Amino acid sequence: MYCVFHVDVNSAYLSWEAVYRLQQGDSVDLRTISSVVGGNEADRHGIVLAKSIPAKKYGIHTGETLHSARQKCPGLMVVPPRYGLYMQCSEAMVAIMSQYAPLIQRYSIDEAFLHYQFPPGMTPGPEAEAAAVKTATRLKAQIRQELGFTVNVGIGPNKLLAKMASELRKPDQVHTLFLHEMPEKMWPLPVQELFFVGRATARKLRGYNIFTIGQLAATDPKLIHCWLKKPGLLIWQYANGLDHSRVTDEPVPVKSIGNSSTLAFDVTDRATAHQILLSLCETTAMRLRKIRRCAQVVSVTLRSDKLITCHHQRRLEVPTDVTSLIWQEACRLFDDIWQKEPLRHMGMHLSDLCSNDYYQLSLFHQHLEKHHQLDKTIDALRSRFGTRAVFRGCFSHSPIQPLMGGVLQDQEVEYPMMASYL
């Protein structure tokens, strides 16, 4: 018999940043003051990525602008993100979790599910639940002692209830949510706190006088389906604690790959826009080849200085993973839809992916194999020597970075491993 643990880092980016800074000699713990991890305002990436508990008391929310956050808390401390550091912290946490369970499913950079096997001969009941709590408490303490940050651990019979349990009270807590505990712990909660229920769905449910998870669970599923169609049946099942998904370490098949960037300046000319698309395509095509896929559909998204968004896509005659061919198609799509308005955000997206083990040759691309070999060589050099080891000459004296989007450059920085200061 088994149950599921859901491990969730408390204020992940901020906690990891705080512990790293303490390790480097800082005297102030970011977790104890009003602080946030935020993007670069000069590059127009100024939003809150993570917040401390003191900052949360001012009503600061993840995703709001730093300008808005400072209005709520004038003394707010803002620190820039270091994604490479955060990836290392996540890897270190997973390494500890692997000591407790052979099967781990990474849900995000700061969350994971563990398949916890009860001790041999132990049947579900109070004794088994107590054993799970004891193990989860030991796991939580080891992460705090060895890595210096805190986590919540939720325990349940399935992934849904384990995740709901980890959200009950923070930080640094272990909570259980087994089926017999649902009437007391989960059903009184507001319906918007149920996993998969967003603001729009919660608003619809309140329109039908459903305000709590318990009220949703007690509603006739036929009515829920009538109101919300198939997604309604799913949240009704969740409200009743039903989740048949298994903890799995198999990677989720990638169905599409995208890359976008909010620009540091408004783009007003075609040449600059094409260069930005080249930078975005370089990153995206490299990721595409890494998973051994070709793309059959290319799409481009533009957002103007007035925040008006337009989107255009086209199916390729021949699937490809070649950077130059993807870029050429992206440029054609851009030229089709751009109305000369200043642009503050650009993105591109590859979808309808297929294997790149075999690719169809085209009469119109006589040097296709040379392009394949060139991309393969560049990928190998970047993998060995860093993403900036090789880049096109057009980026050498340009304000545009050669590989825009993502966190590739920061990931190459080696940070000393964290240790506890508690």
Automatic annotation (TrEMBL):
The entry's keywords: DNA damage, DNA-directed DNA polymerase, Mutator protein, Nucleotidyltransferase, Transferase
Cellular component GO terms held in the UniProt record: cytosol
InterPro entries in UniProt: DNA/RNA_pol_sf, DNA_pol_Y-fam_lit_finger_sf, DNA_pol_Y-fam_little_finger, DNA_polymerase-Y, DNApol_IV, Rev_trsase/Diguanyl_cyclase, UmuC
All residue ranges annotated as the UmuC domain in the record: 4-198
Listed SUPFAM superfamilies: DNA/RNA polymerases (SSF56672), Lesion bypass DNA polymerase (Y-family), little finger domain (SSF100879)
Keyword Transferase: yes
An MF annotation (GO) of this entry: DNA-directed DNA polymerase activity
Keyword Zinc included in the entry's annotation: no
GO biological process annotation, one example: error-prone translesion synthesis
PANTHER family with a match to the protein in the record: DNA REPAIR POLYMERASE UMUC / TRANSFERASE FAMILY MEMBER, DNA REPAIR PROTEIN HOMOLOG YOBH
Family from the record: Belongs to the DNA polymerase type-Y family.
Name of this protein: DNA polymerase-4
